[in-house]
């Protein structure tokens, strides 16, 4: 039976992720400490890998309480450590020097900065899907593929694209539970330019998007709702978490149960 194999949080939007054994659901459905901070440029927009490939060479890590940030322009041996709350000015100066323009660090510990505000719950993918993508791009290994797509929840013991069962026709959601936490699967996640690049160097994988779309279409399983694909550069599932789930905790090893489809009343 599918189960929750791993949980991944990205404390600073667009920077390195952290694997954890458990995570708490916030009021807006995001996981605590996920995308809690974000870097903003002088134009007021998020600094991310979509628009600035220098993001890829940054290395970051966090202490167990997500209070301390260690960051470096490359290997962490050449690093600086800052307190995320008390050293905000120093962090901003370091980032400004690195990017070459004014950077502001913003913070939202009540709901973070989700990519999709309509489906702000954790993104879900199965191990089978990640291994299938490796078949398409044999020079990549598992961790590289996972880091390219940056999911929050990875489902173990799942055949390729099992997670496609977690969405259905437009105007509907699929209810499912992980442990005692209920989610609504909304839609297949549209990917951006980031997965085409090496997450460590920013180097572009030639024809990645074209090949991905061809193979995704060819390998679409029978349970996938094809009408949700205006193109096939989609992988993982965007979710929503009902307000009733606030404060509940996901744990690695939790079982997964699909409850059924219902109309989307959001």
SSE topology:
Blueprint: E1 3-9, E2 18-20, E3 22-24, E4 37-40, E5 59-62, E6 68-72, E7 80-83, H1 88-99, E8 104-107, E9 124-126, H2 127-136, H3 142-149, E10 153-156, E11 172-178, E12 181-190, H4 208-218, E13 234-240, E14 249-251, E15 256-263
Parallel strand pairs: 9-10
Antiparallel strand pairs: 1-2, 1-10, 3-14, 4-8, 5-6, 6-7, 11-12, 11-15, 12-13
Mind explaining what this structure looks like?
This protein has 4 helices and 15 strands. Strand 6 and strand 7 form a beta hairpin. A 4-stranded mixed β-sheet has the order 2-1-10-9. Strands 13-12-11-15 form a 4-stranded antiparallel β-sheet, with no helix packed on it. The model has no long low-confidence stretch (mean pLDDT 95). The protein folds into 2 domains: 148 residues, no CATH class; 71 residues, no CATH class. It is globular, with a radius of gyration of 18 Å. The chain is an alpha+beta fold.
List descriptors.
266 residues, alpha+beta, 2 domains, 4-stranded antiparallel sheet, globular
Helix/strand order, N-terminal first: EEEEEEEHEEHHEEEHEEE
- The shape is globular
DSSP summary: helix tally: 4
Low-confidence stretches are none
Q: What percent of the residues sit in helical stretches (DSSP H or I)?
A: 10-25%
Give the class from helix and strand content and strand pairing: alpha+beta
* Lateral arrangement of strands in the main beta sheet: 2-1-10-9
The counted number of beta strands is 15
SS strand fraction:
25-35%
| Radius of gyration over C-alpha positions, nearest whole angstrom | 18 Å
């Amino acid at each position: 039976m599918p189960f929750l194999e791993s949980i991944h949080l990205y404390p600073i939007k667009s920077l390195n992720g952290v694997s954890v054994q458990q995570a708490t659901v916030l009021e807006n459905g995001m996981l605590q400490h996920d995308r809690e901070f974000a870097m903003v440029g002088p134009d007021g927009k998020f600094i991310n890998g979509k628009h600035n490939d220098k993001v890829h060479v940054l290395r970051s890590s966090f202490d167990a309480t997500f209070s301390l940030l260690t960051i470096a322009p490359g290997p962490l041996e050449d690093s600086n450590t800052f307190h995320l709350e008390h050293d905000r000015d120093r962090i901003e100066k370091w980032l400004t020097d690195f990017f070459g323009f004014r950077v502001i660090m913003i913070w939202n510990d009540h709901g973070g900065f989700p990519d999709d505000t309509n489906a702000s719950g954790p993104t879900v993918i199965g191990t089978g899907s990640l291994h299938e993508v490796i078949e398409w791009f044999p020079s990549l290994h598992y961790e590289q593929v996972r880091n390219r797509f940056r999911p929050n929840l990875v489902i173990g013991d799942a055949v390729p694209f099992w997670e496609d069962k977690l969405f259905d026709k437009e105007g509907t959601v699929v209810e499912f539970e992980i442990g005692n936490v209920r989610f609504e699967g909304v839609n297949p996640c549209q990917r951006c330019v980031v997965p085409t690049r090496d997450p460590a160097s920013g180097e572009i994988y030639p024809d990645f998007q074209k090949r991905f779309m061809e193979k995704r279409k060819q390998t679409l399983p029978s349970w996938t709702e094809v009408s949700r694909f205006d193109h096939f550069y989609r992988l993982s599932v965007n979710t929503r978490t009902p307000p009733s789930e606030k404060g509940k905790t996901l744990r690695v090893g939790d079982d997964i149960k699909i409850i059924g489809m219902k109309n989307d009343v959001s």
